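chain below, 413 aa
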Amino acid sequence: MKPNNRPTSDQLLMDIIREAISLGCEVQMETVRYKTGDSSLLVRIADKYPGLDKGIFLLTTGIHANEIAGPLTTHQRLPEILACTRVVGLQLVLYPLICASGWDLGTEQNVDGDSGDDGNNDYLRRRTIDGKWTWKLSDNDPCWEWCYSSDPILGIHLPAETLAMHTFLQQEDWSNIKVALDIHQDYLTPDVPAGAYQYTFGDTSCYNDIFGKIRKLTDILGDRDFQFDRKDPTSVRHYDHNGCTEFHDGSITDLAYQQRVPYALAIETTGPTPIEIAIEVNMIWIRGLCDIISHTPTGETMSQQASKPPDPFDLPSEEARMVNEGGHDPKPDSSSHLIKPIQTSTTPDTVRTDDYGDLATSVREALESFQRLNRGEPAPKVIVHVDENDKNHVSASWEKPKSVPWRKPKKWF
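prediction:
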């Protein structure tokens, strides 16, 4: 779908922000700056509906900006998504468009054309027993250590929006996340027909009802190979009859697996799949995963049943010492990365300018971005957050205003 056949990133995010606030969600935003001088918004939406005590449903879309089905799903179906998660007691945490700057260009990468050292879905590195760090863990290669790919010890270059996502993800309550669903769309594989497939972990029999419903809409592309490394056309993975493959690739889904999320998966529809069908396939997964959670007894679930690489903290002390040679903690203390709120609630006219140097500039840019999205209307009250380790790192969250003008999103397809 060409960029002029869908909403701009501003239109899409503003529609989603408006609807999320009107439905009782909290909105947080990070301004992502690029070498070109452009900036875009990275938006996190968290449901604040009372009584959501069964865990978190983490939903991410738009990592690759040309893969439009995921962001359009959240744009068109947010009330239904919230209804699905709320009825089973799950809190929705949504990142609706991660690479917003590439969306308007119709490109996979951001406005800088920057895919980093290993792509813009780069969140995890593992160190194998021979001491090598890798994003691509082979089926028979044990992992002895892992860390976020943004860890300074690795020296990996990440795209700006991916780096900003690392900051958000290191604050998520991973121990409480029950589902981590990342929505993609395959424009990479040549000559692929319309259909769907997915990256999963462990026993996939719990998804059989979902597979059956998808087959009523489109083909499941099983018993075939798909390319997985954008830099290597010869790299392929085999997918089973239900279109599933298990692969440790350093992605956000692989990170969720490593964080022991019970249901961690990435789903794909192909480029030739009609957009209405692709959106409905995505909704089948969302509804189906909520249904699985509602019927899942306490205890180990499907992703957890997959054979796991050894955890350094599970090793005998001597082995753990050897793994940790050099003093590097195999599981970085995420608390050092937390963005903690300043004890103030402020409006655009009362941003403090004396305590944090470049903070005022960062906050002003964030508010101007919001007002630009909001088509000049006043921004609601904003709570400013500053990273205590880096006073130039700023984010903001909005309190729900007394009244929020709302227009039903335009149907863009």
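The radius of gyration is 21 Å. Residues 275-295 form the longest helix (21 residues).
thats it, cya
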